[in-house]
Amino acid sequence: MKVVNLIFAAFLLIFISCENPTSQLIGTWKVVDVETHFDEAKMSPAMISQVVEMQKETFFKISNDTTLIIFSSENTHEAKWTYNSDDNSITYFFDSNPTTVNKLGKFVDGSIVSETTSAIGKMVITYGKQPK
Length: 132
Prior knowledge:
Layout lengths: L1 H16 L3 H5 L1 E12 L6 H13 L1 E4 L4 E5 L4 E9 L4 E6 L2 E12 L2 E8 L2 E9 L3
């Protein structure tokens, strides 16, 4: 009987120590870094700086009930999020348009990294989880 209890305790310890990546996502996330690789022939340095500052004002809260709340300087949006453990990607959609799935970013080394590419170049935003 002691052997069974010992095996059960060891299994429980291993199970608890292997934290689910989804649970690591729960909380409030704010911008910690913004990298821009824009074509300055298409966008002035002042405009690039303004884009970076706008991104820094945006943050979001991930809840364990699949609710994602995005806060920006002028608006608040509520969506549903999902996590894909195959590629560590986080996506979201709005209830008003559930067929349009948006990519939030990838969960990498405790951060969420979002990459956006457009006609003017590429932007990489890194979000860090805020302490409770």
